[in-house]
UniProtKB/TrEMBL annotation:
Protein name as catalogued: Uncharacterized protein
Species, as recorded: Colletotrichum tabaci
Source organism superkingdom: Eukaryota
Amino acid sequence: MAALGFAIDAPGLFASLSLSGAFEKLTPAEAKTSVKIILGSGERNTTAGGPRPHIALWDDDGHRIGQYTPNKDNIKAGFQTNIVIEYTQTEPKHSQADPYFVMLSQMNNDVICISSVLVSNGKISGAFYGDTGYKCGQSWFASENRIGSDFEAPRCVWLDANHDNDINARAISFHLHDMQPNGDKLQQYYENLDTLCNSTPRFSFWGNLLPDAIPPMFKPRLKYKNGNGADEDLSKVLDDPEHPWDRGAYMAPKKVNKKRLPYFKSLDESSSSKRYYNGICARSALQDL
């Protein structure tokens, strides 16, 4: 099965990127999901490899279905690892479910730089590429690791528990359905980047979110035009700019009052700057309240 996602092409536009033969062969009846993580690499960087992150999965209604706790094995820069997560947290246990919300959290102080996360349970599949994190303000590196059917080299994004070298994320979370490269959806992201980068349940990076945490999710489920196209109602998608999510939370992110956070006074109007300050600087301010 091929994993479909989107990256940024040479002109700077969102473009479909396919990675063929990405997964172990699973069937929905197996009550498992395959998660493949591909790391970046480059001559100017020797630290992209490192420990595997923790992974958590939820269905589209926000029920946790499975979780992965890593061993001490590392992933080398430019290499990949495939992880099969059993549905041990469904009710009843090991019942069939679809992975729609995904979170990766790095508990180790040794950084990793992720080019792609590919997710499939044999029924649905999708891929997160590092270009999304880059576009939304996450710390990144210009990886030279070429992947996919077109041998593209998406940027990789850093995860680090202690934020060495100003790395601004320990964790990422994303809605798998919204990582799929439907043409109308990509056009919406291009025309209104906030629908990708300022829609926290859709994608977010987090300064401190721990493996047992629960990131924000869409409740009720989103509705799309023409199946999986553009959003029907942007008001259900976009974050409230006056009450942003606390992206420095450790367990249960909550919305906070922007007026109480002094760092927001110096925000640039670009989406990437909002994402950065909502993450790390908002965390620092909250600790002082």
